[in-house]
Design brief:
The complex is a heterodimer. Chain A is mainly beta. Chain A has strands at about 5, 10, 20-25, 30, 35, 45, 60-65, 70-75, 85-90, 95-100, 100-105. In chain A, the strands form 2 sheets. In chain A, strands 2, 5, 6, 9, 10 and 11 form a 6-stranded mixed sheet that branches. Classes of the chains: A mainly beta, B mainly beta.
């Protein structure tokens, strides 16, 4: 399957750690990238590759992958982290897939 | 700093063609290795990849939209464009343009990709 599946929502107490997962066949070949989207705003890249953060993204965001599952971890969640999070991957043909999205509630 | 900006009509009549342009500033659209994408988001829903045009001017489309989509590039204006034909209310969405970086590991069958930056998005409503 080319779909990327995420849990619809997750709740985390302020300052605690939350892990968001993304499952799909394409993840066995292409690493996931992760995007944060706040209401009314465009998505913002927070993690790409094995565990790379773009400039300006806090180091409390980290990524990992195991087989067909990618994970985004927020260590010490802040109120500002409340948002929707989407994973993305692609296949060798060039098709790109976004995950179903996870709402993080802090 | 690379910036992307979408432009185009906010209202399109059913059965007509939706046309949007993404203007890129801060770098050339012909820089090797980047893919220029269109992505949309239906109201209250998730992200849907539409397709891209790469630095070799080659387009590639989501199979589910392929019959109606055309993505083209105007290097002289540092722009790329989206056309979506025969629109219906189901095409009402916020449309984003985004630059995609891709790094292949040992072959084109594995690697990593990322979308950065994104345009701010533009809402297109299909209605009579």
């Amino acid at each position: 399957s080319s779909e990327l599946t995420q849990d619809p929502a997750v709740s985390v107490p302020l300052g605690q750690t939350v892990r968001i997962t993304c499952q799909g066949d394409s993840l066995s070949s292409f690493s996931a990238s992760w995007y944060q989207q706040k209401p009314g705003q465009a998505p913002v890249l927070v993690i790409y590759g094995q565990d790379n953060r773009p400039s300006g993204i806090p180091d409390r965001f980290s990524g990992s992958r195991s087989g067909n599952t990618a994970s985004l971890t927020i260590t010490g969640a802040q109120a500002d982290d409340e948002a929707d999070y989407y994973c993305n991957s692609r296949d060798s043909s060039g098709n790109s897939f976004f995950g179903t999205g996870t709402e993080v509630i802090v | 700093q690379v910036k992307l900006q979408e432009s185009g009509p906010g209202l399109v009549r059913p059965s007509q063609t939706l046309s949007l342009t993404c203007t890129v500033s801060g770098d050339s659209i012909l820089v090797n290795g980047y893919y220029w994408n269109w992505i949309r988001q239906h109201p209250g829903k998730g992200l849907e990849w539409i397709g891209y045009i790469d630095y070799n001017w080659s387009p590639y489309y989501n199979p589910s939209l392929k019959s109606r989509v055309t993505i083209s590039m105007d290097a002289s204006k540092n722009q790329f464009s989206l056309e979506l034909s025969s629109v219906t209310a189901a095409d009402t969405a916020v449309y984003y343009c985004a630059r995609e970086g891709v790094y292949f590991y040992d072959s084109t069958s594995s690697g990593e990709n990322w979308f950065d930056p994104w345009g701010q998005g533009t809402l297109v409503t299909v209605s009579s």
